[in-house]
Here is the input.
Amino acid sequence: MHEQYQLNEKRHSFLERVRSAREQREAEQRLKHAATLIQKRFLGIDPRFSDTEEEKQRSELNCKRIVNDIDIPTTVIAVHVTVEYLLLVRYLLLSSEASDLENNIVIVALTPSSAFSWLHLMRKILCKCIIFLANLRVSYGIGNYVLDHVNDTKLNLYLHLLLSFTSTASWAALKSEEGVCLHVFALGGKLRPSMDKLCERLLINLVHADFYPQLSVTDIGATLLLRPICRDEIDDNVLSQYSRCILTTPALIWHLKHEANSFKLNLLNGKLLLRCMQFLCERSANDEFFAKLEVGTEVCILGNIVNMAYLEHEILQSNRDLFLKFINLILCCCRGNIAVKKQSMSYWQPFFGWYKKPISGRLQEALPFVTKQIQLLWDRTLVLGLFAELCVSPVNPVVEEESGSHHSIDTDGIKLKAKNLSISILSKLRRGAPKLKPKQVPSKLKPTQAAKEAVFGLAMYQNVLNTFSPLKYDVLSGLCYQDFLLPKIWETLVASDIESAVNHYLQMFVSDKSQSSSESLSFIVFFESATYLMTILDDYELFTLEKPFQVRQLISMAHFCNLFIFRSVWEKIVGRYTFQNIDDVLRNCTFNVVLGFLLLIYNRDCRRPFVPKDFWLMKDLKSSVFLNEVNRGNKKALFIIQRIPHVIPHRERIKLFRKYVASEKASLAAARLFEDQMSVIITIHRARIVEDGFRQLSQLPGRILKGIVRVKFINEQGLDEPGIDQDGVFKEFLEEVIKNIFDPALNLFKLTNEGHLYPSPTSYIHENYLLLFEFIGKMLGKAVYEGICVDILLASFFINHLIGRTASKYHSSIDELSSLDADLYKQLTFIKHYEGDMNDLGLTFACDEDILGEVVTHELRPGGRTIPVTKENKISYVHLMAHYRMFVQIKDQIAAFMRGFHAIISPEWLRMFSADEFQRLLSGDTCDIDLHDLRKHTQYFGGFHNNHRVIVWLWEILANDFSVEERRLFLKFVTSCSKPPLLGFEYLEPPFSIRCVEVNDDEDEGDTLGSVIRGFLAIRKEDPVSRLPTTSTCFNLLKLPNYHRKSTLRDKLRYAIHCGTGFELS
Here is the structure.
């Protein structure tokens, strides 16, 4: 049974195979029969036509007759006509691919006598094929991908026909292969160049028949797109149509490159790029070609050409000038529709900015890809091609002892190295650049080839910045990312001759007021890039790694900018050009860019010094002459004192500040006298100093607080304290208020890691906390206004807000974050330098904060919770996080404090100082106490005099026995501030005083005739060894017993200053 079953199974399998083979033969016969019917229908001949010349001519004439009889409308296509044409297309394709030459229509073209007729015939067929394709796209929306199966088949047939008959590559009649009629194939190999010429003529005819305008890029593909321009000789008509219809396709090259790995080979080894650029550069921005372009498509041409240049960067170096000319031409065309600012009929585009005309939705959707193309313009590949000569030019060598180690992380060593290096560099700069005499013509820089290359290349990038303003920081970051570029450009442009460079660029600055020359544009974009770079570099990169700029280069750049800005404002330029109006200078873009870099590098030096002492001063400028110009209201002098005050010695600026205050006091006093106003009198309970002061003074305007404020204290028993306030009592009140309210325990202020104060982020738990901040701002402003030094240290980032140093667009919060939150600074630095996958960190543009036990999420930018941190945006995240921590968290407190402070102190006065200089203005100088100056300006009472025994002992003890820290404690013991006044003790108010006392403070009735005589004559009574020195800090008064021994004075004084026993009211 089993064997019978296997036999039946084999028989059944055999029959199935036989049946399948029979069905396959029948299908092939039907297919052949269908092809025969098609041939009969359209050719009217027997498909088995012979090789006779007569039959070939008859078939050719029949083809002409049939095709001429077919009427293909150009608008609405009849169904039966479309079907007939599709049958013709199918026949032509089958015929061209047929290995049987008897059935191959290409044979007609091989005969010289019929070649012209064949060309005319195929031209007519292909032109109508283009019309069918165009109508198919319009009717069925090919661009939107809504074709059904039938129309998709039509599309493929039409494209296949165009591809087959515009190139001989697929012609079977010209392929050498084994088989019958081998002699014909050999003949075809000889005829291939002629057939290629025939296809070229066919392509030319198609182009003249609007080949490009009728078809979209999605129709023709990359191969067919390039065929008309693959020829050695291309007329302007072909290039015009190609540029207008193909290159205006948004991000065409981008998509083709990402879809075809071999696309680079199809770009004709750079010929296409060169031909397009040459054709376009022969036209001006006002040419008819550009006028006929659709709105916004100029940028598509720019993107596609840049993309091609990126793919063919090998030829860029030899054709650099042509490429730059093309870029500048297209940018000029783009600027025609870009509005400088918002207008009534303008449209905001993220790519263009304000645009005068609306752009199509197709271009709007493709702009992200066009942006990616244009971003290739500052990719490293193209930058290397544009600055090839500069990249190989050597940088000025650094002396070995100046270079040092670049990998040490010793902070003190770095600072010392920077100081020594800067002194060496500055001395060389000054020795190598002698001062010019007034009538001496300045030396001119001799531009090298690398310098010319840098100028034209940078000028192009500045044109990009001027045209596409929303891409400004993208362009700058791209240029800054090339570590090699900016340092070499600086060395090339300046050539280490600072004086000559300053004079050269000053003349360029005033002669090219329109800032349109290549040199002006390159100058601007260099300092724009350098400024942007300085904002994103941290101290470790800048001073330890010295990347990308070396410290010596930073010093030379600072020296150049300082001279350039000062001379452009204060001095007359050597040559025939002079500044007639300072306002013209201040409006100049070149001036403002250099000024921005100067202020940035100066602020960096203030925070972390790397230049020598007095580096920023203009030593040839006489302070007395300059201050006279300030008093006269000279605009140039006022600009210098407000924007670059560092060129003036600090002491002179302090004097000017005190002069401003004295002048305002005098005018306010005259006004009060005229208005018959009385001074403000407040009553303060000792147990409620802050509360009473806030209640009585917080609502007073700044104009009143600038006047005299009298204070009457009430002691803890509720009794009025004796004494008349002659400014000393108010000084004590002010010091006590500031001392109490800045106490971190009150939670209005917190301490940084370095012990400096800043507003507490959780200070809002206080009732009326913003009014409290405004009040303390007024009190601190009053202390500065009256010249009262207070012993508090404010955080530098907080001071920068007070003095207006954070208004710059290039201000970087991360520079000072380490002083506030060292852990966060380390974390952000790690993120900034992280080279791995940012997705592993799982960060978004949001941060969580624990507020009184509740976790609150803050977004660093709108929608930040859903925006991941990537490699491209991590720098932005780092700066936004630092900005949030140092400003956003406490912006309301800072604003309230500034309102109060500026109500007393004019913001214009504060612009004269850096953060460190303001801190010294607030709390005194940081240097050691000048005992000679203190003794010279000390007043004596109670019989003491300069040569009194106890006074001589006192100065000897301070000079010889006390340390620097003990001398500061002594000064704080007497004046409540450990630092001396900035201008010396001559300006201490009230003056430093010493009085001889014989009794305790509660029994002291002041100087009497007897006490003065006894003190003056040093009449010995019992040695007051049981008494300590005391002070009245409100009067800067030291009350000193008449000790009999120097050792007693030293021990008692040392004990008093360490224990703080002297803070009592006289």
Q: What stands out?
A: Residues 215-378 form one domain. The chain has 49 helices and twelve strands. The mean pLDDT is 77.
